[in-house]
Amino acid sequence: MIKPIVHDPTALTQTAVPAKPTDLAVVTDLLDTLQAHSADCVGMAANMIGVNKQIIVVQMGPFAMAMLNPVILKHTGAYATNEGCLSLTGERPTTRHHQITVKFWDRHFKPQQQTFNDFTAEIIQHEIDHCAGILI
């Protein structure tokens, strides 16, 4: 179900709690909401739709991937960039890494570990920051 986007910085700066198998409906809501905003959004965290769980979704070309309880294990190649956010107006400067390795649970709650590069890595870092209550 498409959910409204949260714009309240107080809600967005709360640290998310770990997701559980009972939270899988949130994945569907996030994917539906991401698709509804595909013209101006490439990733979302659950707190952006009012659910304070460690769940993100990332658009990777034609596919959207869900990550539950994502943790960056390794990162290399720091660079400065400007990012926008569907929950905030304008762009802000931030530092990201060209390559990251992430441990997470997939939408079937199976453990995964994968390495991501460049723009996909940037999106994932942005959304993981949301889970930590960090706004750009």
Strand content: 35-45%
What is the general shape? globular
Mean pLDDT: 96
**Total beta strands:** 5
Low-confidence stretches: none
Measured on Cα atoms, how large is the radius of gyration?
14 Å
Query: Could you state the order of secondary-structure elements as H and E?
Result: HHEEEEEH
Q: Can you describe what's shown?
A:
The chain has three helices and five strands, in the order H-H-E-E-E-E-E-H. The chain starts with 8 loop residues before the first helix and ends in a 5-residue tail after the last helix. Helices cover 23% and strands 42% of the residues. The protein has helices at 9-12, 24-36, 118-131, and strands spanning 43-45, 55-60, 63-85, 88-105, 111-117. The mean pLDDT is 96. A hairpin with a 2-residue loop joins strand 2 (55-60) and strand 3. It has 136 residues and is α+β, with helices and mostly antiparallel strands. Strands 1-2-3-4-5 form a five-stranded antiparallel beta sheet.
Summarize this structure briefly.
Helix content is about 25%, strand content about 40%. The chain has about 140 residues and is of the alpha+beta class. A 5-stranded antiparallel sheet has the order 1-2-3-4-5.
Notable traits:
136 residues, alpha+beta, five-stranded antiparallel β-sheet, 5 strands, 42% strand
SSE layout and pairing:
Layout: H1 9-12, H2 24-36, E1 43-45, E2 55-60, E3 63-85, E4 88-105, E5 111-117, H3 118-131
Antiparallel strand pairs: 1-2, 2-3, 3-4, 4-5
